Amino acid sequence: MLGATTTAHRRAAPTLTFLATRPPTFSSTTEPMEAENFLRMLESKFGLLNCTPVQKTLFAAQQLHGAAGAWWANHVTSVGADQQITWDEFKDAFRAHYIPAGLVRRKAREFAALKQGNRSVEEYCEEFNRLALYAPEQVDTPAKRKDRFLEGLSAELQDRLNLNMGGSFAEFVNNAIVAEDGYRKVMAERKRSASAMGPSSGPPQKFRMVDTTPSGQRYRSAPVPAPVVRPPQPAQQRPSVPRQQQSQGGFRPPQQPNAQTGSFPCYNCGRLGHFSRECPHPKKSTGQNPPRNNNNGSNNRNNRGPVRAGRVNNTTLEEIPENSPILAGMFSVRDHPALVLFDSGASHSFVSGFFVDKYRLPRTLMKARYTIRSAGGQTPALYEIEKLPITLGAKVYPTKCMVLEGATLTLFWACLG
C-alpha cells in the first residue's frame, strides 16, 4: 500500500512542478502567431523542468481548453489512444491545424505591403512587429529591418529620416516618433496661418489676387500675378510700358525705392510717404510714370554670365469668384504640403528656396542667371528643378521651376501648360 502511494506521488510531482511555472493555456485563435507563441512559451517552461518528450506532450495537452481541447481529443483518437505521442509530433500536428502555410503566406504578403497610412508611428510599429513574424527573411538583419520600416513610413517622415539611419532599431523608431511630432507641429502652424490669411467661411482653397503695389490696380485683364521673366536688354534700349496699357489696368513696372529712405514713390504724384490710393493730389488718367531713381544701374552687373531680369508683383490673397483665372491653396508638391498659386497666363514657375532647403529637394545650376525684382528688393534665381511634381487630385504635373533664393515663404508659383 505504501509503495503504491509513493509511485502515485512521484507521478504527480512532475505535474505539480509544471503547473507551478504557470504555463499558458490555449483554446482558439485567428492569428497564427498566437498559436506559435503558445508553443514557444511552453518550450520555455519545459526548459525549467527535467521531463521526457512524452511528458511534454502530456503537459501541453492539459493546457488545451475549449475548441483546442476538442481538436486534441479527435487527434488522439485518429492516431490511436494507446499510441505515445512525442513533443515534436505534437508540435507538427498543432502547427498543421492552427498555423496553415497558406495563412502564413498571406500574412507575409500583408507585411510586404504594409504602409503607415493614417496610423501614428507607434501604431505602425506595433503592426510592423506583429506581421514581421510571418516574414523573418525580410527583417533578419538590423539594416533590413530599418529599411523596411522606413519604406512603410509616410513620405514626410521618410524625407526627415533618410539621413539619420544610424543606431539600433529602437533608436530609429524613436527618431521617427520625434520627427512625426515635429511634422504635426509644423502642419498645425500652417493650418493656423492659412486660417488667418482669409475669411473663416467659404472654400479654403479659392482666393482672389489683389495688387498692393502703389498703383492699387487689380489684375483682372492682365494675367500677370506670377513672375514674368524677359530676355536681357541694354538699359538705354529697354522700351517703357505704353501709357495706354497702363491706363487700362495692364502691368506697370515696379517702382525703384528711394536710395536714402528706401521708400517707394507714389505712382500718381511721384512723392514719397504714401501710396497712390492714399494720394491727396488729383488722380492722373494718363498713367504717366513718376520720377524714377536710377541708383540701381550697372553696379549690379557682373561678367559671370547673362543676367535676366524678372518682376514679381506684391500680392495678398482673398476669396475669388468661380470664374477667376487664378487659384491658390494648399497642395502636395513632391508629397509635401505647400501653398501653391496657379496662373494660366504665367510664363515661368517658381519655388521658394526655403521650401527647397527644408525638404532637401535636388536642384541644378541654370545656364543663365536671373534676378527677380519685387517690392521687397531683388531675389537671385540661379538654380532650377527640372520636374517638380504637383499633385492635383489623382493627377501629377511635373513642373519646371526656378528656385527663388532667399525667399522665406513656402509660396509656390506655378503655370501648368
TrEMBL record:
PANTHER family in alphabetical order:
LDOC1 RELATED, RNA-DIRECTED DNA POLYMERASE HOMOLOG
The terms under GO molecular function for this entry are:
nucleic acid binding; zinc ion binding
Task: List the keywords (alphabetical).
Answer: Metal-binding, Zinc, Zinc-finger
What Gene3D superfamilies does the record point to?
Answer: Acid Proteases, Zinc finger, CCHC-type
Lineage of the species this protein comes from: Eukaryota, Viridiplantae, Streptophyta, Embryophyta, Tracheophyta
- Origin species, per record, is Eleusine coracana subsp. coracana
Give the matching InterPro entries: Peptidase_aspartic_dom_sf, Retrotrans_gag_dom, RTL1-rel, Znf_CCHC, Znf_CCHC_sf
Q: What is this protein called?
A: CCHC-type domain-containing protein
Composition bias (Pro residues) maps to: 224-234
Q: Which residues form the CCHC-type domain?
A: 266-280
- Where does this protein have compositionally biased stretches of type Low complexity? 194-204, 235-248, 287-306
Residue span of region Disordered? 190-263, 278-309
